[in-house]
What we know:
Layout: H1 4-11, H2 18-47, H3 61-82, H4 90-101, H5 107-122, H6 130-147, H7 152-171, H8 174-185, H9 191-212, H10 231-259, H11 264-281, H12 290-298, H13 303-322, H14 330-348, H15 358-374, H16 377-388, H17 394-412, H18 417-424, H19 435-438, H20 443-446, E1 451-455, E2 472-479, E3 482-493, E4 496-506, H21 511-518, E5 525-529, E6 536-541, H22 542-551
Helix pairs in contact: 2-5, 2-6, 2-7, 2-9, 3-5, 3-11, 4-6, 4-18, 5-6, 6-7, 7-8, 7-9, 8-9, 8-16, 10-13, 10-14, 10-15, 10-17, 10-18, 11-13, 12-14, 13-14, 14-15, 15-16, 15-17, 16-17
Amino acid sequence: MITLASLRKRLAFPKLSWQLCILSMLGGAAAAAVVILFNLAIITIEESFLTVGDDYTSLTPISRFHLPFLGALVIFLIGRLIGYQYIRGGIPFVLHRLKVAYGVIPLKNTLNQFFGGIFALASGFSVGREGPVVHLGAACSSYIGNRLNLPNNSVRTLCASGIAAAIAACFNTPIAAVIFVMEVILREYEIHIFIPVMLAAIVGSMLTSFFLGPLHDYEFIGQISLTMQHYPALIALGIFLGMLSSGFNHYIVAIISKFKNYHIFTRLMIASLITGVLGYFIPLAMGTGSSAITFLIDQPWHTQLLFSILAAKLAMTIFAIGLGVPGGIIGPILSIGAISGIFGGVILGFFIPLDQLTNDFALMGMAGFMAATLNAPLAALLTVVELSHQLEIMLPAMIVITTSCLISGQLFSNRSVFTMQLDIQSLAYRKPPIEKPLQKVGVLAVMNSNFVLCQHEQINDKILPEINMKNLQIIKRTIENSACFYLPGTSKCGTEYQEHKLIALSAQATLAEAYLALYKEHSGGVYIYTKNNEDIVGIITFGQIRQYLLEGKI
Length: 554
């Protein structure tokens, strides 16, 4: 019979387990359910004043100007009600929480993202759904693991699974969701993590298809007709996209840096003013941008309008993300990439025959711009493959992606926009190399549960030499009504023994936390407790951690 205690111990090992797979699917289902509610709320609000979702051309110019202010006011009131300190969210915040709390996210941050994201997206800001849904997916799955008091290494896997399910539910792209999680969120490939993440993505995609249908926002994309003679043009397009993505990332960081000390109300009003003014004149630049892509694919010859939409979309997105409007960046990135691809194709068409390739260059633009902006070439490649349902796109997309990433990274020292945001906001997201293998193992997997607890009064010089070292001995002292535990050390001289104070550590902790508690002294140990600090279930010494680092096995 499987008990909760045995389940926790099993999940503490860095191994593939069917129990974790089931939990990941449950977490994925919960994440997908919240994402479906999130999407339905946006659709319901948009249907009340838009003829077509994400198409703001049906509104009067003055309505387009007022709409972002109305949305910003609601977002501000939500933030004030819940708490300004919980306003942060989206993918960068999830990366930070993975570093500091194994993906466990405060409920109030999640509420801010859910309601704030709905009104930000419905009021025409140039933000995407994936930021809030990644946050929501991570929160749902990690909540399940944390409520069950599972080891933190498995909570981290559940968090990643929830993110994959949420992205798959949002875009109906399960493969790209899995790769995005492994390449951007976790930045590692481990089979015991990969399988649960994949199962959660499948569940997320299936639930969305069941409730909302198999459609996605980019299904207007047609069959590509690129040939080898177009590859030089694709290289030129990649160069353009690499330069554009570098400027895009650096301007977002500059806006964050300049306005990070401003009050949230001021930042929201500035973002509303920019969105409202540009939306007044260029309505196609509002929202995620899918309506603009549809329009430009059909009518790419309006070069001045094309350039205006691209410039307006860039400005709206940079200021919306930089000023803290709740929402994601990937949706606008795909739209900017598509518009940039169409624009690049039109310009190149003056020199090279590129007739009837507007659709193709839109797809290439999406791939190249996403890859260079997020520093995620594989995720970008699989995203456009799944969105277009065409394997033939892989080779030309790889040409654009490699070119844009090389230009962006080598010539302009560009990095992922997420890590750049975290750096400028002074949010931790990196783990020291020595901690990375340790955070994959829970303390329950390594602890020595073969110990004897002795009261300090029972210990004397005659008993200490007779201690059977096959069992670890714990000495309990009562100091100022508080219990302190010690581990006998080696003999210093004669019968005099040195005691190492044991540090309390929760059973949910990983070896990384045990290491951080002991690394300064390079000796002693930690005792593992379950319900309270005196409920000891095991001991881990620094020697055990050192042995694991040297040998790589438990």
